[in-house]
Amino acid sequence: MAGLQALSDTLGEEFDRAVRTILGAEGRVIVSGMGKSGHVGRKIAATFASTGTPAQFVHPGEASHGDLGMVTKQDVALVLSNSGETPELADLIAHTRRFGIPLIGVASRPGSTLIRQSDVGLLLPQADEACGNGIVPTTSTTMTLALGDALAIALMEHRQFTPEHFRVFHPGGKLGALLAKVGDLMHRDMPLVDSDAPMSDALLTISQKGYGVTGVTGPEGELVGIITDGDLRRHMQGLLDHRAHQVMTAAPRVIAPDALAEAALAEMQDRKITCLFAVQDGRPCGILHIHDCLRAGLV
Fold first, then answer.
1. What's the pLDDT tens digit per position in 145-173?
2. Cα–Cα distance measured from residue 23 to residue 14, given in angstroms and rounded to the nearest whole number
C-alpha cells in the first residue's frame, strides 16, 4: 500500500505527457520489458488493446532477432525496466532513437539509461520490495502494473470509451454476457395476434411458438397487450367466446432492443415473469425469454 500511495503522489506532468504522446500516435503502443517487467508489460498491452488503445507486446530478445520490424514510425514505445539498465532492451531503445519513435520509459532510477534516452520518463518512487530481503520484484512490479492501469484509464477517458465499445472487444465470457444487448439475444419470430383475433387463434399461437405468451397488436402494428397463462386462467369461463383484446393484459412491460440484456433479466426477475417483448417506436421487434439470458451466461 505504501508503494501505491507513493506512486499516486508522484503522478504529474510526465504522466500527462505520456498520455498525450500515446494519444498522438497513429499506430500502436509497443510495450516491452524483460523478466518480471515483461510479464507486467504483457498485461498492460492486453489492457490497452481491450480498452480502445491498439497495443502489442514485443519481447526485447526477439526484437533483437527480427521483431524490431514490428516497431514502426507511427508507433510509440512503452518500455519497462525497474533498474533502467536492462541490457536486453538496448537494441529496442536504439531502434526508437534511430527512427524517431516516441519512447516512454518506466524505471525507478532517474539517471538510468532508459530514463535518459526516453522522450517521456515515468519514474517509479523508491519503495522497499515486499519480500523480507528486499530483492524479489514485488512492490516494484505492483507499482508498474498500477501505472499501466492508470494510463489505460486516462486513455479511456480521453477516448470517451463506453461499455458498448468494451463489448466489441469482449464478446465472450462473463464480461461479454454482461454487456450483451437485448437485440443480441432476442428472437424475431414472435408470437403475435391481432387485438380482434378470436381466442382460438391466440391459443394456437401460444402453443406453436412455445413462449407461453402471445403479444397483441393494434391496427398500426403497435403492441397493445400480452396474453399470459394468468390471463387464460382468469378468463377460463367462456374463454373461446372472447377476443384477444378482452383477455389480454394491456400496456405490458417492454424493453428497448438496445438495452443491456442484464437489465432485461433484472426486470423479469423483479416482476417474476419469463418473457419481455422488445419494442421500438411502439412496435414489437423481438421477444426475449429468461432462458436466453441463462444460456448467454448472465447468471
1. 999 999 999 999 998 877 666 666 666 66
2. 14
Q: What whole-number distance in Å separates Cα of residue 110 and Cα of residue 98?
A: 23
**Residues near 13 by beta carbon (within 8 Å), at least 6 away in sequence:** none
- Strand-pairing partners, residue 260, are 181
Distance CA 81, CA 103 (A): 13
Output the DSSP codes for 97-158.
HHTT--EEEEES-TTSHHHHH-SEEEEPPP---SSTTS-SSSHHHHHHHHHHHHHHHHHHHH
Decide: helix, strand or coil at residue 73.
coil
pLDDT digits (tens, 9 = 90+) for 108-125: 999 999 999 999 999 988
Could you report the per-residue pLDDT of 25-56, keeping only the tens digit for each? Answer: 999 999 999 999 999 999 999 999 988 899 99
